[in-house]
Amino acid sequence: MSKAYQEIITELIDRIYLKKRTSDTTRIILKKYFTQKSSRRKLTLEMLGKLPDLEREVSRERARQVISKFVDKDLPTELRRLERGLAAGDDVTLNEKSDLVQLKDLLEIVTGKIRAANKPVFARRVQDELMMVGVIDDNIYLPIAVQLARSFGMGADFKFQEFNGHHIILESNHDPAAATKDILQYARKISTYFGGLFSLKGLLDPSLREVAPEFISKIPGDSIVDYISDLISSEHDYLAVSSGRFYAFTSRDERISRILKPVFFHYQNPLRVERVIPAIKRALTNNFRRNADERQNICLELLDSADNAIDDYCLKTGLLQESAPGYRIAGPKLTSELPSFEPGDTIRYQEIALNSIRLNGAPLDSMSLGRELRGKVPEAYKPIIFTYPTLYYKEGGGRRNDHYKPLDDSYICDGDLVIPSNPNLERIAYIKRKITDLIVELESLDVQTGVIGKARMEQTMLREYLLLRQNSLLEDYESAIGSCEICGKVWPHSFLIAAHVKPRAKCTHEERGDIDNIAMLQCVTCDSLFENGLITIHSNGLVAVNRDKTMTKDLAQLYASIEGRRAYYLNGNENRLLYLQYHWLNIFNG
């Protein structure tokens, strides 16, 4: 019926103004105003006065007069004529004004559905329900439809509130600020307490009624989850994580950020997910227990099921990034803060414990760790050292059976012999020196002889270097695998390219030697797209695509899988941003 609505209102406007010799301007403004789609916000009076179909612009006041006259005078006049004809049994009048009858029937269904809905509710949900039963589709703008309904005398015991680009339907006695801003402010408080992450279940827990906004209790129980979820999703600063069971408030990540800084300050290499996330949970648990209030038990329960949500949150906010499947390194947001990190007392005492564990050359049991820390750590800090450590972890079934281990499971053995946490450090250093030498050789050659071979060697070694940086456990290069930094898929090393972000031929000597930043691992497909300017990376780290060039069905599917995906090439390094800017302007032609 929504197509009928468009046809009805268009034909009705033409019929009403046919004999009145009204200007085309009036018809154009009215048709555009009353046939707006729900996918766009309401047209302003100024926009209506500048429609391209108009012969000349009209003022805001003139546009307002056109709409007001139609709603308040011309449409009610037509309705009164219809009612008189119906009362007199005039079939001719009924036939001539059938469009008016159809519009009235449609609006009665729409307003009836809105009245019956539990409020507050986002208008799109009501519209979706009407679409499901075939009454309308998205070619009807509910606030405008209700405005028309008032012309038919259909009273509205509800109101529309525009918020963050969406329309919310409230009861007539609802306070718009209480239904929107108060709830979001409460969500910010809960998320801050939890470290930037919270779930709807925790937000709506009945035991928090005393500290929750009063309006939450006024929302019907069978619609409260949908409404709160819609409201939170309307804020750009929130992310849905873990399939929508949790939400992340991206501006309130201080708590988890403070937990991760010392971890990656001490561990420069990738750590397994099952080491990083439990470290966050241990620190949060200590905080909840230390600052116990009415939210403590709720947050502790959420932590039990929040592993995937915490990891998802850290990846999406840039606190962490994937270095290889199952491994995490510091993300760009965290990396930029690490140089200024200064450990507090809690971390300094954990450092003492971590050094004792490493120097033991093997996991250290609780009793031995206690002896090592005697006289070095104040009693007040020992509960954290033994129960809630973040720089190391414990395994075992009780105090006498507990063993403490570094997060990277590496130790210092034989007194002075250090087993590095990354067994490939020597190889990394060798490759870096070799690539530097190759760059010098290539630039000194005046003839083609040997250039191709040395260039291939540079590419091969640069690829191995990037693989080693991505995967600290790489032992056999021939069977090595790595992930493409554009599509995120894991490939054998032979399918990966060390792609120069700024074309090598355009690089200065210093830029070619900047091997930590000039190149990134890409699969052969993404490398081809990147090299030919079909894809690039925004300055915000998200993949962008170029649809202005030749498009195929398969290419469109590939674009859909990578567009908007976060590429963690950007890590706060200014050179990387400059290389991406060059690619954006000169290759991608952004």
Descriptive notes:
With 590 residues, the protein is of the alpha+beta class. Among the domains are: 2-160, no CATH class; 345-418; 425-587, no CATH class. The strands form 8 sheets. It has a 3-stranded antiparallel beta sheet with strand order 1-3-2. Strands 4-6-5 form a 3-stranded antiparallel beta sheet, sandwiched between helices. Strand 2 (158-163) and strand 3 form a beta hairpin. It contains 26 helices and 20 strands. Helix 21 (425-444) runs antiparallel to helix 22 (451-470).
Q: Roughly what percent helix? A: 40-55%
Rg from C-alpha positions? Answer: 32 Å
Strand content range: 5-15%
Mean pLDDT: 82
Number of strands: 20
Number of helical segments with 4 or more residues: 26
Shape: flat
Summing up helix and strand content along with how strands pair, one would put the structural category as alpha+beta
Low-pLDDT parts are 414-422
The biggest sheet, with number of strands, parallel, antiparallel or mixed sense and barrel status, is:
3 strands, antiparallel
Strand order, largest beta sheet: 1-3-2
Distance from N terminus to C terminus (CA atoms, Å) equals 42 Å
